[in-house]
Each structure stands twice: as structure tokens, then as C-alpha cells.
Amino acid sequence: MLTIAIANQKGGVGKTTTAINVATAMAATGWRTLLIDLDPQGNASTGLGVGSAQRDLSSYDLLVDDVPLMEAVVETTIPGLDLVPATQDLSGAEVELVSAEERTARLRAALAQSQGYDICFIDCPPSLGLLTLNALCAADTLLVPLQCEFFALEGLSQLLQTVELVQQRFNPDLGLIGVALTMHDRRNRLTDEVTQEVRGVLGKVVFDTVIPRNVRLSEAPSYGVPALVYDHSCQGSRAYMELARELIARFPAERVAA
After folding, report:
1. What is the pLDDT of residues 65-90, one digit of tens each?
2. Binning pLDDT at 50, 70 and 90, where does residue 14 land?
3. 77: helix, coil or strand?
4. If we measure between CA atoms, which residue out of 24, 17, 20, 19 comes closest to residue 4?
5. Residues 21-51 as b or e (16 or more Cβ within 10 Å = b)
6. Beta strand pairing call for 74-75 and 141-147
7. Are 113 and 67 in contact (CB under 8 A)?
8. N or C end of the chain: smaller count of CB under 10 Å?
């Protein structure tokens, strides 16, 4: 199973929207897909139509109570896409894990029990605490959504410093599969300037596909479905399908062949 953490410590950059829609696109392509909601806000769970009544077990139970992964998995309405939901209990997990053994490797141990999945996405919270550290320690690689705004690169540098620390101390094989530019507004000249600056600094690490600001992307979560289901022909959905194609093209050859 290929495991991809979707992380950026800044909030409101499109992490959850990216997680939901890329996971949906992968499932639609035939990949048996698992999404781990590791954000206490539980937006990925809500965005996939998994209500509180379906969250008897959650990612909190994986990390804190050592519940087997497959017991916490919930089927979504998207064929081929399963979810480990989140609850507000995760807010306390940061404190509870401080004294736990192997506190940064709890999620990695849980994912070692996965059965039948080709790919796993982890939707991280907007912070660089123990939850995100668990995701980075469990992941093979990292996908970073980056909002097209003035302070984008400043936040990215902090995240990449954390990634370097994780590589040195916990997960030397952690890679960076790419940076996805989100919330692009063609009407805003600053957006284009930031896009050019990010590409100038990071080069080919940045995906060619740019995710636009799109009303349909914003509306879809309130209906409990990904934008790709809510309106597959809208500009945002088409962009996420193209991003998924680019993502697959960056996978190691043996993963794609499998």
C-alpha cells in the first residue's frame, strides 16, 4: 500500500478538499483507496457523508487505544473508497500521546494491519503537532496543497524543515511527491505572481495542474459528497481529476504495475 500524507500547517489551504477529491479520483480509476481523517474537525468525514452515528470507532481509537485498523474502517458511498473517520476526541490525542510509548509511530503500526488497499491518503490537521508527526512517520511520501497567496512560501519552508527532521529521526524514506497550487484566482494578479514565484523556487516539484477557486468545490461538502460526484464537469472537479493523473505519473513504476 502506498501511503501519502496531505499536509500543510496553515489552515484553509485546501487540504481536506484535495484529500477527498484526489482519493475519489483514485478510487474511480480502480485503485482500492483508504482515507484516514486525522483532523479533529472531521471535515473529510463530513465531506464524504459519514455522520457522527457512523463514527463509533475513529482515528483516535487507532492512535490512543490500539484498535485494529480494519475495525475502524467505514465504507463510503464512493465505490472503492473507504474511510477511517475522525471525531473531536482527536483534540485530546495530542496530550494523551505525550506519555505513550512510540508516540510518533502509532499510526504506522496501525497501517501495517491494512488489508486489500492499494493506496492510503492521510488528511492531516493544520498544525505540526503529534498527529501530523504520526502521519509523516507512517507515510511513504507527502503531498502539500499550497494556497496561491502572499505568505505561501513562508509556511512551506516551516513544513519542509519539519519533514527534514522526520527524515533524520523517524522516517528516512519519507519523500515529497509534489506541491499542488490551490485556490487560484485568474482575476487576481497577485495569484499569478505567487504561482510564478513558487514555480521559480521549487521547479518541477510543483504540479502542472492548478486548482482554481470554484463555487462547486465549496458547495459539495454541505451535500456530503466530493465535488467529483456533486458536479463532475465543473472546473474544480476537472482540475482534481487532472491532478490525480499527474500524481499517478509520479508513482514508482512498481506501484503502478501492481
Report:
1. 889 999 999 999 999 999 999 998 88
2. confident
3. coil
4. 19
5. bbbbbbbbeebbbbbbbbbbbbbbbbbbbbe
6. unpaired
7. no
8. C
- Residue 211 identity: I
The domain defined by 2-257 folds into Rossmann fold (3.40.50)
For the chain, what are the domain ranges?
Answer: 2-257
Do the strands 81-84 and 74-75 form a parallel or antiparallel pair, or are they unpaired?
antiparallel
Q: What is residue 83's predicted lDDT score, i.e. its pLDDT?
A: 96
Helix (H, G, I), strand (E, B) or coil at 233: coil
Residues, the chain, total? 258
Closest by CA to 179, choosing from 193, 169, 194, 190, is: 194
Q: How far apart are CA 226 and CA 133, in angstroms?
A: 27
For CA atoms 144, 148, 149, 151, give the dihedral sign.
positive
83 and 73 in contact (C-beta within 8 Å)? Answer: yes
